[in-house]
Amino acid sequence: MAGYRSWKDLPGAEPAPAPAVVTPEPPPAEPAAESAATSNLPGELATLLAERRTREPPTLESLLEQGLLPPELEQALDEYHGLRRQLDQMTGKGEADPELERRQRCFPVEVHSKHSRIAQRRARRGEERARQASARELQEQIVEQRQEQRESERRDLRARTRRVARAMRARSRLRRRAAELEQRLSERRREAQSRALITAHQQTQAERERESNAAQLRRRALARLRAAARRARVTAEHEEQRRREAQTALLIDLRAREARLRERLEQRLRAAMLEQQQTRAEQAKLRERLEQRQRTAMLEQHRAQLQAARLRERLEQRASSALQDQRAALEREQASRAADAKRRAAALAERRAELARMREQLDRAAEARQHGREQQARERIAQRRAAALEHERLDAARTRALARRRNQETHG
Question: Do 21 and 2 touch, CB atoms closer than 8 A?
Answer without folding.
Answer: no
